[in-house]
Amino acid sequence: TEVKELKILDLQRPVFLFVGHVIPRKGLPLLLQACAALQTRGYEQYTLQVVGDGTQQQELEAFCQEHHLSDRVQWIGRVAYDQIGNYFHNADVFVFPTLEDTWGVVTLEAMLLGKPILCSKGAGTAELVVHGENGYVFTPDDPDKLADLMQKFLDEPGLIPAMGERSKQIMAQYTPVAAAQCLAEITKLVMAN
């Protein structure tokens, strides 16, 4: 695997991040259509970084050129697993537009690192996104709705640190210590009855 250098120069903030295979099931066309919708609304001050590669990449790069998104979308390609964290750390908002994913570990990684989440209802991890608290959930067939949600972060950048902190708080509930405490409380309740 070719090692990619973290590309952080000349990034417009906020940085939206997609990490995954560039294949139809992952919903990247929806995200790029949302970016095109933002452009028609006059929103151009952001960067979308796409970490990963796959069978749809050439088609989607052509879409970006056709819709004049090439200066806002960075195609990073495949990155060594031990380097992906650099992209998570550099990002402001994580986007998971999948059409269908049983779980979606990348969402958990982003939450652990304190990122707000834009997550499709097609992902099992959508259950961890409290709409309006640590991010937003959207249907995977509505690019205009996703554009609306992205626009919230563009219009109100203060949402990013607040929602990111809430992501960390939500993930703290799922540590082994938290699980053991919950089990102890349940045991006390059962024993008391």
Structural class: alpha/beta
Number of domains: 1
- Tell me the series of helices and strands, N- to C-terminal: EHEHEHEHEEHHH
Anisotropy-based shape:
elongated
CATH structural fold name: Rossmann fold
From the N-terminal CA to the C-terminal CA, the straight-line distance is 58 Å
Q: Helicity level, as a percent range?
A: 40-55%
Q: Residue-averaged pLDDT, rounded?
A: 93
CATH level-two architecture: 3-Layer(aba) Sandwich
Low-confidence parts, pLDDT < 50 over ≥5 residues? none
Major sheet size, sense and barrel closure: 6 strands, parallel
Number of strands: 6
Strand order of the largest sheet: 3-2-1-4-5-6
Radius of gyration: 18 Å
Number of helices: 7
CATH class: Alpha Beta
Strand content: 5-15%
Looking at CATH, the homologous superfamily is: Glycogen Phosphorylase B
Describe the structure.
With 193 residues, this protein is an alpha/beta fold. The protein has a single domain, classed as 3-Layer(aba) Sandwich (Rossmann fold), CATH 3.40.50.2000. It contains 7 helices and 6 strands. A 6-stranded parallel beta sheet has the order 3-2-1-4-5-6, sandwiched between helices. Helix 1 links the parallel strand 1 and strand 2. Helix 4 packs across helix 6 (159-172). The longest helix is centred in the last third of the chain and has 17 residues, at 176-192. It is elongated and about 65 Å long. The protein starts with 14 loop residues before the first strand and ends with a helix. The model has no long low-confidence stretch (mean pLDDT 93).
